[in-house]
UniProtKB/TrEMBL annotation:
The keyword Cytoplasm does not apply. CDD domains: TenA_C-like. This is Aminopyrimidine aminohydrolase. It comes from the Bacteria. Belongs to the TenA family. SUPFAM superfamilies: Heme oxygenase-like (SSF48613). InterPro entries: Haem_Oase-like_multi-hlx, TenA_E, Thiaminase-2/PQQC, Thiaminase_II, Thiamine_Salvage_TenA. The keyword 4Fe-4S does not apply. The lineage of its organism: Bacteria, Pseudomonadati, Pseudomonadota, Alphaproteobacteria, Hyphomicrobiales. Catalyzes an amino-pyrimidine hydrolysis reaction at the C5' of the pyrimidine moiety of thiamine compounds, a reaction that is part of a thiamine salvage pathway. Thus, catalyzes the conversion of 4-amino-5-aminomethyl-2-methylpyrimidine to 4-amino-5-hydroxymethyl-2-methylpyrimidine (HMP).
Length: 220
């Protein structure tokens, strides 16, 4: 069984929890409150900076030239293309560049960002891929799921269209394929560590959306 199929099966129940969590249910219904989505989009913009850095390190660690191009381009997309989506919502919600800069990373965003960057710098290429894959894959699956049941009109349609879109899914499938290729030639102990990294990132995906729902902030 390819690594991706094994990892998804092992975390299927956790994905279902993500798919049906209050934030995503409300987003699909178009009833998600502005303060919750605003919290999410600001924290996601912070997160994508770290995600882009981790992708850039993955490119540097790639075991072939295709991987260098793939993850360098992924870093570019994370910073430029998805940032455009955030910019539109920032304008809609009246979030200025100064507002963004003075809003600190939430505890969960801080933890997830540091997990990805630390993993990218300190771990082997296979583990880096396993840690990055859930963000790609879960967003694609959640985007497609929400697209199929979203209320219309929906104030978050641009978000839905981005993550349910063909271009994003092509990129996700390419990351899955690279991860499976690398895992297929990895030692058993490396594959076991990849599974642990994949699970941790999946848990952090849940925590990120839950934090937005709770308007999570530093308690002290």
């Amino acid at each position: 069984m390819p690594f991706s199929a094994d990892a998804w099966s092992a975390n299927a129940a956790l994905y279902e929890t993500i798919r049906t969590m209050p934030f995503n249910e409300a987003l699909a219904a178009g009833t998600l409150t502005e303060d919750r989505f605003k919290h999410y989009i600001i924290q996601d913009a912070h997160y994508l900076i770290a995600f882009g850095r981790a992708l850039a390190v993955a490119a540097a660690k790639a075991d072939d030239t295709d991987g260098i191009v793939q993850f360098a381009e992924g870093a570019k997309v994370a910073i430029i293309v998805e940032r455009a989506l955030h910019a539109d919502y920032f304008k809609q919600f009246g979030v200025t560049p100064a507002d963004f800069e003075k809003t600190p990373l939430s505890p969960v965003c801080h933890h997830y960002s540091n997990f990805l960057v630390a993993t990218a710098w300190s771990e082997s290429y296979p583990l880096v891929l396993a840690a990055l894959l859930p963000c790609f894959w879960i967003y694609a699956r959640v985007g497609t799921d929400i697209l199929g049941r979203a209320a219309s009109p929906n104030p978050y349609q641009a978000w839905i269209d981005t993550y349910a879109g063909e271009d994003f899914h092509e990129a996700v499938n390419a990351v899955i394929a690279t991860t499976d290729r690398v895992a297929a030639k990895a030692a058993p102990e490396t594959v076991a560590a990849m599974h642990a990294a994949f699970k941790r990132a999946t848990q952090l995906e849940w925590m990120f959306w839950d934090s937005a729902w709770r308007l999570g902030d530093w308690p002290v």
